[in-house]
Amino acid sequence: MLSYRHAFHAGNFADVLKHSVLVHTLDYMAQKDKSLRIVDTHAGAGGYSLDSRQPIKNREIDNGLRQLWLRTDLPPLLERYRDVIRGFNKQQALSFYPGSPLLAQTLSRPQDRLYFHELHSTDHRLLKEALGNDKRIKVLDEDGMKGLQALLPPPDRRALVLIDPSYEIKKDYQDVVQQLIKAWRRFPTGTFALWYPVVTRQRIDEMERALVRSGIKNIQLFESGIAPDSEEHGMTASGMIVINPPWTLWKEMETALPLLTEWLSNGEGHFRQLQLVAE
Ligand code: SAM
């Protein structure tokens, strides 16, 4: 039984990090003409109206994207992310937040193919509605990590995989890493982006160790936290682990990550940028 609904969290500090890295990576990978296979293993509902009842309950976007929305001093990676989201909104009002599927649909080309997995029946239906009739896209109601294995390697040998689970049970942390390692072995030159929440630091340390031991090369990690680690306050930080990242990402994040963290945490946050495994 799935209880997580991304609508409660859309546009929060974790989405800002996740989606700004995603937008940069999509832009980068679209520079080569060859077709790209985009796989989103945990897609969510596609997009989120900020006027609907769910996000209002938590208003997480108020401490997330809304803090950056009108700034005139954003570094390029964050400015590009904010501008892509502005494209879904009228002028400067922020009334709609596109999730990863709509971002990928918008930033992909006619030759690309997109695969979205979503198991929650309501979000699956909403996702299909949000994406409309787009012949490049398949929306699947199967387990995303199993579905991913069947999609690799891609025929044109280019793939971007976003792995963004809801981590509803503790075992998810281990399972997702094992499945990611398996997927990488099927296609070692693919770009894989794994999102993680820091709720219990030990679980993330274990994830990192498993990846370092896995034999996978070229892994970068970007983390932004709004409060010190704590087992009592839910998610205090989140991160993106990127295998075979765009070579441009590291430098862009060196500028963006400290600012993003400062702005979203009122100066009380922390960040990490690591080359977890060398090229
Ligand atoms: N990637 C989305 C975005 O960035 O806009 C948000 C995804 S949300 C964090 C995780 C989603 O995964 C939820 O909608 C949940 O219903 C779905 N989910 C949970 N377990 C799944 C599974 N095994 N396979 C596919 N989807 C799953």
UniProtKB/TrEMBL annotation:
Coiled coil: none annotated. Monomer. Its EC number is 2.1.1.266. One of its GO terms (biological process) is rRNA base methylation. It comes from Cellvibrio polysaccharolyticus. S-adenosyl-L-methionine binds at H19, H42, S100, E118, D143, G144, D164. This is Ribosomal RNA large subunit methyltransferase J. GO terms for molecular function: 23S rRNA (adenine(2030)-N(6))-methyltransferase activity; RNA binding. The record marks Y4 as: Interaction with substrate rRNA. The keyword rRNA processing applies. One of its GO terms (cellular component) is cytosol. InterPro entries: DNA_methylase_N6_adenine_CS, RlmJ, SAM-dependent_MTases_sf. The active site is at D164. It holds the Pfam family RsmJ. It catalyses: adenosine(2030) in 23S rRNA + S-adenosyl-L-methionine = N(6)-methyladenosine(2030) in 23S rRNA + S-adenosyl-L-homocysteine + H(+). Belongs to the RlmJ family. It is an enzyme of class 2 (transferase). The keyword rRNA processing applies. Specifically methylates the adenine in position 2030 of 23S rRNA. Keywords: Methyltransferase, RNA-binding, rRNA processing, S-adenosyl-L-methionine, Transferase.
